[in-house]
Amino acid sequence: MIDISVNTAAIDVAAVHALVEGNGAGAVATFVGIVRTDDGVRALTLEHYPAMTKAALHHIAADATRRFGLSAIAIHHRVGTMLPGERIVMVAAAAPHRHDALAATAQCIDLLKTEAPFWKREEHAAGARWVEARAGDDAAAAKWSDGRA
Amino acid sequence: MIDISVNTAAIDVAAVHALVEGNGAGAVATFVGIVRTDDGVRALTLEHYPAMTKAALHHIAADATRRFGLSAIAIHHRVGTMLPGERIVMVAAAAPHRHDALAATAQCIDLLKTEAPFWKREEHAAGARWVEARAGDDAAAAKWSDGRA
Amino acid sequence: MALTILYFAWVRERVGLAEERLTPPDDIGTVAQLIGWLAQRSPGHAAAFGEPERLRAAVDQQFRPLEATISGASEVAIFPPVTGG
Amino acid sequence: MALTILYFAWVRERVGLAEERLTPPDDIGTVAQLIGWLAQRSPGHAAAFGEPERLRAAVDQQFRPLEATISGASEVAIFPPVTGG
């Protein structure tokens, strides 16, 4: 089961967790990315490429499902403007065994950073700026390149 | 912030997640272990060593906090009898960066398997049996032995 | 052949448009060539496309390198490196 | 000196007790020696302690190897390898 959502509404952790539980899974791992509250950002706006986004997330989820034998995975990404402390993205992966659930979650969040068409714009007191991609993100994504479709 | 709970009540995913969010954390990772529904187990009973359990979990949590610079961690473990599909344990770790939150969660669940005084008893149609420890669990726990207190 | 061209993030802001529909000359065969041609359309386009090494692209909604062909494509998107998650 | 001895899981079931308070002889210096001495107390104890390699222990609520001393300890727990999480 693959559940992808790209939405302006707040992410409900219990609801996303519940989507992947059941079906005999012994292990559920999740990752939630949150707008930092400690670096002077007043608001974060996520722009995306609507015609492409869900397919890109589905591809990432399907890859992880194959590689780690997941029983279910959900990737919910918020778009639009959000405030410090609000959730940007949630990945939840269910598998028979714990290491598969955890590794699948790590792979999905790393690949999300480099293979999904989102762009972050931060509002600071001094004005707005587009977040620059980080070389570390490419390196983290490259780690998963073996064994992918 | 370290929050440890050992309780017969059901684990509330949203409540445990909320315990570690906030305080500027940019990343929250969680792991939930669930009673499998697909291997003929009718009920699972977790016995523990009450005088020792919370201290053992606190030690695991404090270790992960130091090693991965966590802003908060919660380990909630259920004891008593539970049914297939019910949650046995939840680890939730919050950190400034995603890899720390994910690695801390993985370390805690691996060490829980070998360093916390819990014993699982499964009820099958044919009777009850105590779950045997697995060699793989020792190997997974040993992975984290560098850099620990 | 007419092409739908989409812009995102600061590329969109500098161009001043989210989308335009254009018919590039026949000798524009790759994304990089398209970027060079677009740069001449306005000062905003020039500001957006002056440093191609800062740009990434998708052709028909698949991420593609700037050397990729646009032959037969109906939609090309040009944007900075992605920063989601 | 009197010692509180706790049993868990199938060790508890075989012994038939969760806890007992005993004063081992002075020549019982390690957990392994304690296990050998306990094995003689009843058929249930014998069944629980017949294969020490299947047993683990905590001394004063710290996991310790079977060769560890019990000198000065007030609580020793004997149990199978843990299986939580």
Quaternary organisation? heterotetramer
Radius of gyration of chain A: 15 Å
Structural class designation of chain A: alpha+beta
Order of helices and strands of chain A: EHEEHEEEHEEH
Helix content bin of chain C: 25-40%
Shape of chain C: globular
CATH topology of chain A: Aldehyde Oxidoreductase, domain 3
Report how far the terminal alpha carbons of chain A are from each other.
18 Å
Uncertain regions spanning at least 5 consecutive residues of chain C? none
Give the helix tally of chain A: 4
**CATH superfamily descriptor of chain C:** Beta-grasp domain
Biggest sheet details of chain C: 5 strands, mixed
Largest sheet of chain A: 4 strands, mixed
Protein name (chains C, D): Molybdopterin converting factor subunit 1
Pfam family, one (chains C, D): ThiS
Keywords (chains A, B): Molybdenum cofactor biosynthesis
Function (chains A, B): Converts molybdopterin precursor Z into molybdopterin. This requires the incorporation of two sulfur atoms into precursor Z to generate a dithiolene group. The sulfur is provided by MoaD.
Structure at a glance:
Chain A is of the alpha+beta class. Chain A has helices at 13-20, 50-68, 98-115, 135-142; strands at residues 2-7, 27-34, 43-48, 72-78, 80-82, 87-95, 118-124, 127-130. In chain A, α2 packs antiparallel against α3 and α3 packs across α4.
What would your notes on this structure say?
Chains A, B: Pfam families: MoaE (PF02391). Chains A, B: It catalyses: 2 [molybdopterin-synthase sulfur-carrier protein]-C-terminal-Gly-aminoethanethioate + cyclic pyranopterin phosphate + H2O = molybdopterin + 2 [molybdopterin-synthase sulfur-carrier protein]-C-terminal Gly-Gly + 2 H(+). Chains A, B: InterPro entries: MoaE_sf, Mopterin_biosynth_MoaE. The complex is a heterotetramer, with two copies of chain A (149 residues) and two copies of chain C (85 residues). With 149 residues, chain A is an alpha+beta fold. Helix content of chain A is 36%, strand content 34%. Chain A has one domain (2-145): Molybdopterin biosynthesis MoaE subunit (Aldehyde Oxidoreductase, domain 3). Chain C has one domain (3-79): Beta-grasp domain (Ubiquitin-like (UB roll), Roll). Chain C has three helices and five strands, in the order E-H-E-H-H-E-E-E. A five-stranded mixed β-sheet of chain C has the order 2-1-5-3-4. The chains are: A alpha+beta (149), C alpha+beta (85). The A-B interface holds A 12-14, 17-18, 21-38, 85, 96, 98-99, 101-102, 105-106, 109, 140 and B 12-14, 17, 21-38, 85, 96, 98-99, 101-102, 105-106, 109, 140. Strand 2 (27-34) of chain A pairs antiparallel with strand 2 (27-34) of chain B, so a sheet runs across the interface.
